[in-house]
Specification:
By secondary structure, the protein is mainly α. The chain is built from seven helices and no strands. The radius of gyration is 22 Å and the shape is elongated.
Length: about 180
């Protein structure tokens, strides 16, 4: 009798642990551990329930990282600190763009309505690319962040390609016809 009770308890605990591991709260906790997002930004991502608003948020955060990057370029500081800040901001930018592209891929696979997110990616990524290309061509102190800049450019190019692919694969919204 005691063995059966112990076995049932063990099975129940194992099931609860499995449920907890796959629960949205646990996924949210893992999601919030993204080091390149502030706590407020992670909360906004977690609060957005649909993929398109999340995509838009990631792109907003990417734009913010680029803006901060340009600000840091114009600001004097020691070379070591400057290199660290610039590389951190570019890396965070690339991570935001990668996450937005990943959401597009997941939404496409799940056949979610991500048309608004795709349009936002197409628009924003095409705005980001000229900025990155200009930095690669004539960026101030380019040697400090060249590799990270290349990674950011690759992430942006891949995001553009993913958005184009998803736009072609996702069916257009249904047309509502008025009754005759």
């Amino acid at each position: 009798m005691i063995r059966q009770t112990h076995r049932r308890t063990t099975v129940a605990v194992a099931m609860l642990m499995a449920i907890a591991a796959f629960s949205p709260e646990c996924a949210s906790a893992q999601e919030s551990k993204r080091e390149y997002l502030t706590q407020t930004e992670a909360d906004k991502i977690r609060d957005a329930e649909e993929p398109s608003p999340r995509i838009k948020l990631f792109l907003e955060f990417a734009a913010d990282r680029l803006k901060k990057f340009h600000y840091e370029l114009g600001r004097p500081s020691s070379e070591r600190l400057r290199a660290e800040r610039l590389n951190t901001l570019l890396s965070a930018y690339a991570s935001c763009v990668d996450d937005a592209a990943e959401l597009i891929d997941m939404g496409r696979e799940r056949q979610d309505d991500i048309r608004a997110g795709i349009k936002e990616m197409q628009k924003r990524a095409k705005e980001f690319m000229p900025q990155l290309e200009k930095l690669a061509a004539e960026g101030q102190d380019l040697a400090l962040y060249r590799e990270t800049l290349q990674d950011a450019m690759e992430a942006t190019k891949q995001a553009i390609a993913d958005a184009e692919k998803a736009a072609k694969e996702i069916a257009p919204p249904p047309v509502r016809r008025r009754p005759s």
